Amino acid sequence: MKKIIIAAVLVVFTSSLFAQCPSKYGADSVKCREQVSLFDMTYKAKNYKEAYESWRYIVTSCPCAWDGVFTRANTLIESLIKDEQDSLRREQLIDTLIYSYDVRNEAFPEKFSKGSCMGFKAYYQMKYRAKASSQDELMEILNQFIQSVELEKEKTQPNIWDKYFQLATWATKAKKDTSYVIDAYGRATDYLDISINNALVKYESQVANLEDLNAKLDAGTLDRMEYDKQSKTIIADTARQMKLVSNYRTTLSKMEKGVAPYASCEVLEELYSQKLPTVKDDISAVNKMITTMSKSGCITNPTFKEALEIVHRNNPNRGTAYWMGMLSLRSYGNEKDNSELDKAITYFQDAVNLSETNEQKADANYMLAVAYQTKLAYSEARAAAYAALKAQPNMGKAYILIGKLYATSGGRCSGEDIPLACSWAAADKYAKAAAVDPSCANEANNERAKLRFPAKEELFKRGLSAGQSYHVGCWIQENTTVR
Questions:
Q1: Which burial class, exposed, middle or buried, applies to 341 when counting CB atoms under 10 A from its CB (0-12, 13-18, 19+)?
Q2: Which of 17, 31, 325, 483 could bond 103 through an S-S bridge, CB–CB 3.0 to 4.6 Å?
Q3: Dist. CA 250–CA 244, nearest whole Å
């Protein structure tokens, strides 16, 4: 009986929700404007019960009047849900919140997209109705999440990902089918990387804008008042983008932990080896496979290589070039085929050129440096390592790599005035690595401990003492300190 009453109320309420907007303010524009003003005033005063009455009028009579009534709907209605003691009334409010996403999409599709609204409808069904839902109803909600994610792709919000993954994990357990959770993780790894990348691109763009603004202020071409106005907006946006990056990374990290019990390399190989032949023409689907397998550390699996080659052949991008380089580097390590090493260098150079963010440039340049180091092309390896440091100044492992290049240059620099002087230059790089990146301090210190320095007798012969400056020649060409 209770469900019948709720359904009856919804029929009346939602029938008016879906009415088309003949005009922005509806049939009675004066009253609509009054209600918008009243809603704005009562909402700001947190008088939510009164605000809700105005909200209902606006949504049912002139939903196109102002998108703010939908932007504020969640805070408004969830507050009322929290305080409502009558169970029937509470259920009606929950239904109202859920179904409000249909009307906001119809009234303002450019702001509230179909995919986003579908995702939030599923989100609130999970939040308020999951425990009371049947297995079939939960599977329907899961399908809503999937449709939402495939519509929104990289625009999917972190909280939608979170609830979607929770439900996919439930489905895997309930149906005894790992594909639900693995497919959810595959979508996440594919789209979240793009989400993070896009936010970082916007962040770096705004950082550049702020630097330009500072230069104009210093040059006197921009007054302080205008500078304060523009810089405030830029700083707020950079903070917003980094918060978004943090949220996306936290969400992805939770998913990585959650999928671990279900996504061993053996399981992924078995699942994807069967699936790949049926989706090989769907580059997006194949890309999800390689992203999932790479995140799970399964790059030696035959299916990973096959899927990677398909995507790189049809849609080469930074990610595919990077992983093709990794496979070539690994192949060289196994077979000592110099052609594989040359391929790795080419792939990593492509990855550098296709990178959009400083983080991507740093990673690709570092692996390029590793490939050159393996080829014993020391100057090229150092140049690539410094390119990585230009993009990411606190990349300690890049300094360690340069230190190793110097430490192993004894044979190359045998004509140096003082034998083992290159160790002083290496020690400088290890110290720098530990200073800029505490996470690699142990490795840097261990590498430094392996160094052999010139004997005291050699220093005495040349009139040198600890603390003096010394120029290391050979290919290194750096000033250092006698130790």
A1: buried
A2: 17
A3: 10
| Mean of pLDDT values over 197-226 | 94
pLDDT at 416: 64
363 compared with 467, residue with greater pLDDT: 363
Rounded to whole angstroms, how far apart are CA atoms 63 and 75?
18
Rounded Cα distance, 24 and 342, in Å: 64
| Mean predicted lDDT score pLDDT of the chain | 92
For 15, 183, 193, 296, 395, the CA distances from 249, given in Å and listed in that order, are 41, 19, 9, 16, 19
Sequence-ordered alpha helix ranges (H) in 336-420: 338-354, 358-374, 378-391, 396-407
Beta-carbon contacts of 368 under 8 Å, excluding residues fewer than 6 positions away, are 325, 345, 348, 349, 351, 352, 384, 387
Which residues does 382 contact at the CB level (< 8 Å), separation at least 6? 369, 402, 405
**β partners of residue 472:** 478
Residue 218 tokens, joined? 């210093």
Residues 6 or more apart whose Cβ sits within 8 Å of residue 330 = 299, 300
State the pTM of this model.
0.75
CA distance 359 to 388: 9
Give the model confidence (pLDDT) of 109-139 as tens digits.
Answer: 999 999 999 999 999 999 999 999 999 999 9
- Cα distances from 396 to residues 399, 401, 411, 479, in angstroms, run 5, 9, 26, 20
